[in-house]
Amino acid sequence: MVLLAEVPEKDGVNGQNEIDLDALRRQFDTEARYRKLSGFPAILVTSLAVCMSLFHLYTSGFGLMQAIIQAAVHLAFVLVLVFLLYPFSPKFSKTEIPWYDYLLAALGAFVTLYLVFEFDALITRAGLPTTMDLIVAFLGVAILLEATRRVTSPILPVIAIFFLLYCYYGRYFPALFQHRGFNINRIVNHMYLGTEGIFGIPLGVSATFVFMFILFGSVLEQTGMGKFIIDLAMALAGWATGGPAKVAVLSSGLMGSISGSSVANVCTTGMFTIPLMKSVGYKAHFAGAVEAVASTGGQIMPPVMGAAAFIMAQFMGVPYIQVALAAIVPALLYYFAVIVQVHFEATRLGLRGLPRDQLPPLLRLLRQKGHLLIPLVGIVYFLIGGYTPLKAAYNGIIITFVVSWLNKETRLTLPRLIAALESGARSALGVACACATVGIIVGTATLTGLGLRIASAIVTLAGGNLLLTLLLTMVACILLGAGLPTTANFIVTSTMAAPALFQLGVPPMAAYMFVLYFGIAADLSPPVALAAYAGAGIAGAEPMKTGVTAVKLALAGFIVPFIYVFNPILVLVDYSFVPFALAVGTAMLGVVLLGMSTVGYFRGVLSLWKRALALAGALFLLIPGWQSDLFGIAVLVLLYILQSFSSRKAALG
């Protein structure tokens, strides 16, 4: 049997035997550009990170603090770790912490813990801040923006500063967005000393559900879950036509369901799957694109999904399990579309799967490491059973620790446990900073009423047409996603653009899911396309070509959100079994036709007019209504007959 860990050594990037994944992540993932410390600074960072994880474990198991105190302690840990780990600029020292970063870390702790120690006094004088309150608030906003710039990118802090300026200079904006303007004291008080701004819902979710699920993923990772997922995908699909590409889709979907980071997912599973795809005949750019599309979709794959899904649940005021259940069909349609296109491409190129003797035996694999699936099953059980996501994640971590001791290879020994606690805290820094900074944008909307103004502007611009409104919202999500992390993108667009969809009668679940999908799609869409470029880096392919191919592969993913807006039963709105089953069935057939159209193959090469016919049939199947469904099915049957006749004729000729 071929060990998967040996695959990248057989087929490296650009003829090299090894891929520098650390350098690749640093290139495309700003959160990976941290200092590599040693000695006392390394011990200090590890100790703080472990303490942060233990704090969240304790509060999750034995009771949360007051919301603003929980968020403040969470943000205190985050700011201290960011200034200790991330340099002012990538050009600065990556091995030493300068004195001013120690000072900024101390200030970050002071301005956040001030809210903890002055909590009762701040409540007593609510709306009447003292001079000290305002100084702390002003410093807090400034330090947060600098921390966010370091760990994400300058774009989000610049947007936040623009919104702060809008709060102050509102009277000078165009009439549609004009307001009377607020003084600096009112702005910083609103943004920092209450629960409408920085310490609002996004940071509150980061300080509870999101952190615990990130920690859950880190603990699972230390058990060897990533290797097990890839081996499991190999055993299930490695033998099929174009097997390695299907392995990439399955493994990345499974890994993404617990990781929530597109670029990290590409680097984790792509180091195995991309060289494997190339070894059986896939072109480098196609292999990189498959991995990027599959990894990106992990953020919408239940049960865990990405951080934005937890915030969606809070915005809607529904249990998280309701969001996860609603995401099942769209996520499966997304991955089904990728597998369909991979299959057609493999068939077109005549690519076969790997020999059975080179694949891990499924039963032996399940006997050895199948116990690692128990925590995932447990998470689902607890969520369906009515537990809060916080308690479900806490229980999942405890179960992971217990079941890890069933096998010597997976045991969470003390060094592994410390590594998991540190990794969980580090992985949460970017999300926490993004959530806190986006709180400024949400605070602007509540202070000035900007959200409703933008919604009215979108509806007016679209002339009240739902399809045009959806297209404008899609463009806004993708453009914002070019510079914002998915979570921040979702919060901004759900605050500013989703209300426009509400005005046109779109159910909240469908509207928020639409915004979430296109925020995630930005990771695939050139010119930014970070996940696609990371895949290109591993594959040794041309980045832009990989990005364009990724968009083509994800085309169904771009169309699926329109489907459930026009047919919201797919996200379980007004659920009824028969209409739901028909909607899912016709959507799957539409995805098959869409795959034929984009790849240009079905039982033989499709001519241009047949590809156009397949695209028309796909669109008709994706539109709700029995008349359009009949037309789409008729197109599918016609293409099957035509292609079967052509293939027989070619065989005889």
Q: Indicate the low-confidence ranges by residue numbers.
A: 1-17
End-to-end separation in angstroms reads 41 Å
Oligomeric description of these chains: single chain
Share of β-strand residues: under 5%
Please describe the structure with a list of short key phrases separated by commas or semicolons.
single chain, 653 residues, mainly alpha
Could you describe the 3D structure shown?
- The protein is mainly α and 653 residues long.
- It contains 31 helices and no strands.
- The longest helix is centred in the middle third of the chain and has 35 residues, at 414-448.
In short:
The chain is mainly alpha-helical and 653 residues long.
Task: Give the helix/strand layout.
Layout: H1 7-10, H2 21-28, H3 39-62, H4 67-85, H5 99-117, H6 119-124, H7 131-151, H8 155-168, H9 184-192, H10 201-222, H11 225-237, H12 243-259, H13 262-279, H14 284-296, H15 307-316, H16 320-349, H17 362-369, H18 374-384, H19 389-404, H20 414-448, H21 450-461, H22 466-481, H23 486-496, H24 498-503, H25 508-521, H26 530-539, H27 543-553, H28 555-566, H29 577-599, H30 608-622, H31 626-652
